[in-house]
Amino acid sequence: MPRTTTVESSGCPPLRALTFDILGLIKVVEAKGEQKEAPKVVEKWGEPDASRCVLAASLVDREFDPLLGVARKSGKIEVLSPVNGDVRASISIESQNHPGSADNSIVGLHLFKGERLGSSSRSCNLLTCTSKGQANMTYVKMSKSLEDSGGESTQTTWNVCGSGSILCSKVDADESYALFGGKGVEVNIWDLNQCANVWSAKSPAKNSLGIFTPTWFTSATFLCKDDHRKFVAGTNSHQVRLYDISAQRRPVVSFDFRETPIKAVAEDADGHTIYIGNGSGDLASFDIRTGQLLGSFLGKCSGSIRSIVKHPELPVIASCGLDSYLRIWDVKSRQLLSAVFLKQHLNSVVFDSKFSTRETQVPPQQQDTDETLQTEEEEEEEEEKTVKRKKASKEHSGSKKLKTKKKSKRSKGDSNEIA
After folding, report:
1. What ranges does the record list as Polar residues composition bias (predicted)?
2. Tens digits of per-residue pLDDT, 363-418?
3. What is the DSSP letter of 216?
């Protein structure tokens, strides 16, 4: 008999997550956090189309004017509003040197939060990378109407690999450095301000049996927000490696996790805890300083995990994958808080952590417009009331005149009868 564990869930805290699937649908999942209420799908954006499959997504999480970048299989990149799903800008990379074909699809997308050269309040910069190693920094002009948008101008295009295929890319918290790695491509770091390669990894040495492990990186992430020199990478040979570019070119720490390829890696805010998901649905947390397993998350997934993300404020993580479930986990107890079935295979998930403050707070311009609308409505109501009062007074006076006329007629008739 298999061993089972019954877990009493403490309920899912209030949160908002956006998921992306292979049919190009974007689904908004929200949890109110009241009486252990499970998260629900509150909105769905787009129509099911396999050619619009979402390959990569990036969210600029802020209170006012947040942005969501989505890279699709057709080669189009859309910049949307994560509040209502409106498309702010849409560009295509087919006209560039790297067409959006099946063998050269987009594998990495990053929407810059900070202002860069040439950016303004109505524009944004994004970094894309294809499987053949074509990195592109693009300037996107946004507008209220989609017809006026799309006036982008490419700033820089360069190659991050000579051969092989890129499978993973990541930008650090300061948005100054980016790492790239893949099948036949060692992990390398690039300075985004100068578009120059500043560091490249070296293949690990052969093991005691003389077996050489081929280079095949599947996922990577920077370990600390304040330091871009340390990052973690997962390989197809179920290895997890910690690199420190200030120490050496080979991994500082390396260990195996189960027996299937590593598919997703996410970092914690503490700077040393990482979350790992593999192709068989196993999810666990490690202390990367020693490679020690902190524990496995209870409630095994039935499909490959493709994305793991840590909430920036709450002690929870979200995972999704090919079993079509979005799962919310508690990072302290490693228990499953909730699972939402979303029908399609999922490729990515992001947290919108500012949705609660965005609902309570109103921008100053909107407050002014609301006040003016209220005053105008009040003035209109007062005018209507005065008009109604005038009409009522006129009708009342008219009825009095009719009554006096009737009374006068009656008085005349009475006088005639008397005579």
Report:
1. 358-367
2. 444 444 444 445 555 555 665 655 555 555 555 555 444 444 444 444 444 444 44
3. B
CB under 8 Å to 205, separation ≥6 — which residues? 250
Coil vs helix vs strand at 306: strand
Q: Strand (E) positions, 201-300?
A: 217-222, 230-235, 239-244, 253-256, 262-267, 273-278, 283-287, 292-296
Handedness of CA 20, 275, 336, 30 (dihedral sign): negative
Alpha-carbon gap, residue 166 to 60, rounded angstroms: 24
* Residues 6 or more apart whose Cβ sits within 8 Å of residue 62: 113, 354
CB 149 within 8 A of CB 90: yes
Name the token pair of 146. Answer: 């989609």
Give the span between the Cα atoms of 14 and 313, in whole angstroms: 11
How many Å apart are CA 253 and CA 232, to the nearest integer? 9
Q: Enter the DSSP assignment of 93.
A: S
* CA gap 407, 413 in Å, rounded: 10
Q: How far apart are CA 359 and CA 372, in angstroms?
A: 21
Per-residue pLDDT band at 361 (split at 50, 70, 90): low
Decide if 72 contacts 44 (C-beta within 8 A): no
Both tokens of 71, joined, read 């890279």
The answer to whether 220 and 181 have CB atoms below 8 angstroms apart is: yes
Rg (CA), the chain: 31
In terms of DSSP bridges, do strands 26-31 and 253-256 run parallel, antiparallel, or are they unpaired? unpaired
Q: Looking up tokens 């404020």, which residue turns up?
A: 313
Cα separation of 132 and 243, whole Å?
24
Rounded CA gap, 272 and 230, in Å?
A: 10
CA distance 266 to 69: 19
Q: Does the structure show a pLDDT above 60 at 68? A: yes
Cα(75)–Cα(4) distance, integer angstroms:
45
